[in-house]
Structures are given as C-alpha cells and as structure tokens.
Amino acid sequence: MEARQTLFLVEVAIMSAMALVLDIIPFLSFKIWPQGGSVSFAMIPVFLFAFRWGMKGGLLSGLLFGAFQVVTGTAYILTPLQGLIEYGLAFTALGTAGVVSTKVQAALKAGKHSVFFVYISLGVLLGCSLRFLGHLLAGVFFFSENAPEGQPIWLYSAIYNGSYMLPAFILSSIVISFLFYKQPRLAEARP
C-alpha cells in the first residue's frame, strides 16, 4: 500500500510538471490567442493520469497543472478571482475525465479498441467541457471589454474559448487513444 501511495505522489508530480513543460515549449504549443489559451499537448498528461488513477488523481493533477502555471508566471491573470476560476477550477476540472477510468481500463484489458476509444473520448470531452465552462464564465465576467460592440459577451467568450478548446479536445482524444492502443499498460496504476 505504501509503495502505491509513493508511486501516486511521484506520478502526479511528474505528470503535472510534464503538462506545464508541454504547454511552454513553443513548437508543441500553438498560442495565438491574446488573452490566453492554446492548442497544445499540455492536457494529455493530466488526462493520462486521470485514466490511470481515477477522478481524484485527475483532479489533483489538473489542480497542480494550473498552480504550476501561476507559479511560473505563464498564467494570464487579471484579478485573483479570475485566476482562481481559470487556473484553479477550470484546470482542476480536466481531472473529471477520470470518472470513466475503470471503463477505459476494462475495455483495454478486454482488447475492445472501439469501446476504449469511446470512453476516452467521453472522458476527455467531459474534462474539456468543464474547463471550457470555467473559461467561458471568466470571459463573461472579466473580459467583456474585448467583445466587439453589439456582440453579446457570452457569445464572444464562447467563440474565443471554443476556438482553442475544440481543437485541443480533438488532439487530446486522438493522442491518448493512440498511446493506450500502442501501450495498454499505461492505464494500469500499479507499483
């Protein structure tokens, strides 16, 4: 039991740090959005950890990823509340993908490739959707001055945040499915 806890702590630290590194390496992160947001491989380690250790592990990994962004100065923060919503809650929400971790692991063990792809896609969709909602709310309350005149702020925020979250969802789903297909043991959390 102690070896499992040690493995958990080591892996959560490594995966969260890897997420940050993948987010800041220029050729692995496509950043053209002026108020933050990017299409990158950064969410993949958080999702991998969530599918490996379940929702609690995923939530912790997402929280650490957001905290690392704040600590390293890569976060785009206007106010403490906006920072909490976008880097605390939104990134933590990525870990909700772990709600289907047992289904993913069972499908992998059974060799049901189409089933594990569906569960991975559903888990990543859940995590990305909740992260999107966090950014959408922050956009409505803290970035209203950026909306074009006459455009509802909620629509502006939805378009802005959706323009990077949708491609990031697709990228994450494909890469994670490929990784688990090629190496199913990545989903097993054992010392």
Structural features, described:
It holds the Pfam family Thia_YuaJ. InterPro entries: Thia_Transptr_ThiT (IPR012651). Keywords: Membrane, Transmembrane, Transmembrane helix. The chain is mostly helical. The chain has one domain: Orthogonal Bundle (Arp2/3 complex 21 kDa subunit ARPC3), CATH 1.10.1760.20. The chain is 71% helix and 2% strand. A two-stranded antiparallel ribbon has the order 1-2. A hairpin with an 8-residue loop joins strand 1 and strand 2. Helix 2 crosses helix 7. The radius of gyration is 17 Å and the shape is globular. The chain starts with a helix and ends in a 9-residue tail after the last helix.
Backbone structural class: mainly alpha
Please tell me the total number of domains: 1
Can you count the helices?
Answer: 7
Q: What is the name of the CATH architecture? A: Orthogonal Bundle
Strand order of the largest sheet: 1-2
Question: Uncertain regions: pLDDT < 50 for 5+ in a row?
Answer: none
How would you characterize the largest beta sheet? 2 strands, antiparallel
Helix content: over 70%
Work out the radius of gyration.
Answer: 17 Å
Number of strands: 2
The fold-level CATH name is Arp2/3 complex 21 kDa subunit ARPC3
